[in-house]
Amino acid sequence: MTVTEREAWLSRVMTEYRTCLMRMSYLYLGDVALAEDAVQETFIKAFYHLDTFRGESDEKTWLMRIAINTCISINRKNWMRLLRHTVSLDSVGNACITDPYKDDTVINAVCNLPNKLKQVVLLYYYQEMSVAEIADALGIPVPTAQSRLTRGRDKLRVVLKEWYFDEE
Amino acid sequence: MKNKLKEALDQHLDDLDWHGESKVWSRIRGEQFGKHRLRYRSLIIALAILMVLSISAFAAHMLHYSSRQNARIQAHTALNVKYGMTEELISLFDETITFNHTLWEVDYELPAYGDKVGVYRVAGMNGMVEASWSYDGEEYDPSGDLSSAIWGVPQLERMRLLYKTRSVAIAQWDALSGYAALSIEQKAAIDAPLLELPYSVDYIHIMPVDEDIQPDLAEMLAKQEILHRFSLDESTLEGYVCDISFVLANGERQYRLVFQANGIPQYSVCLLSPGGQILECSQFDFQGQESAGEDEEELEDRALSIEERAAYHERMRQNGGDVRQWNSVLPDSGDICELEATGIAQAAFLERFGVTEDKLSVMEKEIYCQIDYELFDIPTRVWSIRYVDNMDDYQVTLRAVDGTIEYISNQGGILGVG
Fold it and tell me: Do residue A84 and residue B4 have CB atoms under 8 angstroms apart?
């Protein structure tokens, strides 16, 4: 692929996927600035590793995998700073910042899920990916993805009793 | 409906979008370093001569470093040239590297003393390397006095020396009679130099003063708590040996007591002085021998051969285990073998840190063939080799396919030891 073709590809995917990656990263990291960094890093990594994308999964799944890995790295770096007592708990950003005038019940319920369950729940409900695609994106077996989805869904049902989401 | 959750989230996030295209293009095209949160004043270091020397040295050597590792080496050189930072000092820092084919940046932070040390940054582009420090131009005491508001290299050297002195003393006692069994007075004497620091990264052993609970009373309070918490008879703790420490931790004065039976820790208690409040009272759990608690799994893992560990981790992956945790594998037929990987590691440690094979031979060695999810954006098979003792922790990561050195460091624990 020539540089021009690669840059054209990047321009297209940034337009097409920037919103979903940004929102996904924000839901995972709980911090707008960190999410912006995560999306930026995701596109840069995708640009330089485009040659390794062999089309075995679809483009969105591939980008999601990179984005999740990037978010995990950012999260881990923030938690290591917390362990060394230099970053207060408030600034780590587990709690999603919300508009005080919007009902934040749902977003808080999702953000407060354990990370492994949150990944799967967001990819299934928010990115509307299949379990197989999720397993591919996260590098886990399909049964594991299904199990985590079930557990995440069960946890959300407890918190969001009044919400009805009928599963296919 | 399945989409109800998505609709709710989208509604909440309808004003959230990303507009970082320009930053992406800047990074990729290397047009500019970009805006940064920290204040920098930079001088361009004329490293053309150094670059030529470095390139010729690498070309002549049997070791092949990845581009990323080469960037790290250049960054270390730049810090040494501009600020006098030694490899030992650099190893204290957390290193964050951002790397692409035209521009790289490495940030060095010391979170434990971040406000005093600031951040060092080295950036390289098209053969030019630039080092800077967030406190460039600021005054600090050149004598190394740790009361200075800003810590330059003299202060870092002083801090490192204090921690190293303590680490050496602990290691010597461990080799003799065991550090844990030392008295409060002996531990306080070992840690006394650290009182020069404005604050410690973990805790410092100190001596109780008149206003504190005295050790005998602390032991009695601890025993009472154990008997009460676990509903035990008084006779249960007869014959137990108590290892007692008195420490300053996060501004609190604490007693930390471990009760042992037949040399095996059974109970631990932490209580405040002078109030006597119990902060923690717990029982050591050795039933994990059968239930495979996390620590036991790690110990078993280290004792396995490459082949045994690969099979074990494969079973765990098949059972749904996280691939990032259970990541050991067998090398592929075209990969370098364990012996070759060890040779490259030893040569690299000698070149980078001057540590000889004789020294490495008396250290504890760990070697793994595994899929790495940290250093690479795409999971990559690597050899990870580590030599560790009380003072040093040499680590290297090699690409299994060709032995390229992707990462090398000495993570020797100076801070937080004790």
Answer: no
